[in-house]
Amino acid sequence: MSTLLNSLLTTFNKPVGKDLKKPSKLKSLKKQPKPKKTKPQQDPALINQAQETAREIIAFAREEADKIRAQVKHDSEANRQSLQDFQAKLNTQSQDLTTRTSSLDSKEQAIADKNAKLDQLQQEVADVKKSQVEKLEKIASLTRAKAKEILLEAVDKKITRDVADRLRVAEDEYKQGSDDKARELLVDSMYHGATDYVPEYTVSTVKIPSDDVKGRIIGKDGRNIKAFEKFTGVDIDMDETPGEVRLSSFHSVRREIARVALERLIKDGRIQPTRIEEYVAKSRREIEKVMYEEGKKLCHAVSAFNVPTDLIALLGRFKFRSSYGQNMILHTLEETKIGMKLAEEAGANVEIVRMGCLFHDIGKVLEEEGSHVELGVKILKKYNIDQRIINTVAEHHEDEEYTSQESIIVYIADAISGSRPGARYENYDEYVTRLTAIEDIAKSYKGVVHAFAIQAGREVRVILDPSQASDDDAMRMASDIRDEIKEKLTYPGTVTVNVIRETRATQVAK
C-alpha cells in the first residue's frame, strides 16, 4: 500500500506542465537516447505521511462502524422491549378476559341455582296453598269456588279499609303542611303535565351532507361537541335520524343561535373549539339584530309607536317562541287586530287595548321565575308603562278581577286567537278522544253510575251507586282512577278526579 501511495505522489508531483511549454527541450529530448528505466526513489517522509493518513482513515472507519453497531444494538433492544411490553399487555388482557368469563359463568350458575330454588319454593307454596284450601273446604263444608269468593271479599274489604285510612292520613299530612309543600306539589304536577308536550316544540333539526360530518362535530375525544354545547347552552342529538342533527333546548333563542352557528360551521368545514366560539358569538349578534327588527315590524304592523327599545327587543323574541304550535308573533299580531276591532265596535279605548294585546304575553320570553302574567306586569312597571295597560296584562287570564272594559276585550281577543280552529296544534278529534278515554276509564270501575269529563278534560266527576260502594271505596277509587289516567293518557296540565257518593233518605208524609 505504501508503494502505491509513493507512486501516486511521485506522478502528481512531477512538473509536467513546465516541460510542455518549452518545445526546445522536447526536441532535445527526442535527440537524447532513451534513458534506462530506473526505480523511483521513495521519500521516507511521504511514506510516513501516507501511512499516518491510512491509519487515520482506518481508525475513523472503525469508529463509524462501532457507532453503527451500537445504534443497531440500541434499536434492536428497543424493539425487543416493545415486543415484550406488547406481549405482557396481551397476556394481561387475556387473563382479564379469562377472569371475566369465569365470573360470568359463576354468575350464570348462581342465577340458575336461584331460579331452581325459586321454582322449588313456588312449588312448595302451591302445595301448601292446595293443602290449606282442601282443609278449608273440609272444615267449612264449602266448595272451593265459594271459599275463594269469601276469602277474596274479606281480603278486599281489609285492603280497602287500610288504603282509605292511609289516604286520610296522607291528606291530613298534606293539609297540615306548609306553603313549601304546596309549591312542591304544584311544580311536580306541572312537570309531569308538560313532559309529553315540550319535546316537539323544543327541537330544531340541521341537515348535514353526510354522516361523516357527525364525526367532525363530535371531534377528538368529544371536544367539539362539548365546546358547542358549552357556548350555546343546547344539547346535540345525533342518533335519531340519518342525514340530520337535532338541537334540543327549552330556550328557543339559544336553539336558533345554535342552529345558525352549526349550519355555518358545517358549510365552513373547519369545526374546532375556537371556530365554534367565533361562529356562536357572531350568530348571537345576528340573531339579536333579527329579533330587534322583528319586534319593530310587529310594532309597526299594529301602529304601536314610542315603544321602549328594550321592550321592542323582547317582542322580537316572539319570532322564535311557539305555544302549542302557534307562533307568538302571529298570535300577538292576530290578537291585537281582533282586539282593536272589538274596541272600536264597543267604544272602548283602542290605544289601551292595542298596547295590552301587544304586551299580554311578553312575560313568556323572560328568563325568570314566576308566571308569564307576573313577569309581564313586572317588566312593564319597570319601564313605567300606563297602569291601565298593565291591568289588562295582569287580568287577561282572569288571575285578577276585571277592572275595565279594555281588560275584558284583551281577554276575549286572546281567547279567540288561541282557540280558533287550526290555530294551535291539538285538533278536535284528539281532544274528543281524550275526553272519551277519561270517561271510559272511570266507568270501568265497579259501582260507577256516571262519569263526566269537564273543564276541557281537566276534571272528571265520578258518580257512585251508594248501595254498591262505601266511603272507603270512594277514596280508593279516586286514587286508582288517577293512577290509570296518568299511566294510559297524555294530557296538558293536570286532571282532577272527584268521586262523589251520597246517600239520600226520602219519606213522604201523607
Shape: flat
End-to-end CA span: 159 Å
Low-pLDDT parts are 1-5, 11-31, 185-201
Strand content: 5-15%
Question: Roughly what is the average pLDDT, rounded to an integer?
Answer: 77
**N to C succession of SSEs:** HHHHHHHEHHEEHHHEEHHHHHHEEHE
Structural class of the helix and strand makeup?
mainly alpha
Number of helices: 19
The major β-sheet equals: 3 strands, antiparallel
What fraction, in percent, of the residue positions are helical? 55-70%
- Which strand order spans the largest sheet, edge to edge or round the barrel? 1-3-2
The total count of strands amounts to 8
Structure description:
By secondary structure, this protein is mainly alpha-helical. It contains 19 helices and 8 strands. The strands form 3 sheets. It has a 3-stranded antiparallel sheet. Strand 6 and strand 7 form a beta hairpin. Helix 13 runs antiparallel to helix 14.
Task: Provide key terms for this protein.
510 residues; mainly alpha; three-stranded antiparallel beta sheet; three-stranded mixed beta sheet; 19 helices; flat
In short:
The protein is 68% helix and 7% strand. It is built from 19 helices and eight strands.
SSE order and pairing:
Elements: H1 2-13, H2 16-20, H3 23-31, H4 44-140, H5 144-175, H6 179-195, H7 198-201, E1 203-207, H8 212-218, H9 223-232, E2 235-237, E3 244-248, H10 252-268, H11 273-301, H12 309-316, E4 322-323, E5 326-327, H13 328-346, H14 350-359, H15 372-382, H16 387-395, H17 405-419, H18 428-443, E6 448-454, E7 459-464, H19 471-488, E8 496-500
Helix pairs in contact: 1-4, 5-19, 9-11, 10-11, 11-12, 13-14, 13-17, 14-16, 14-17, 15-16, 16-17
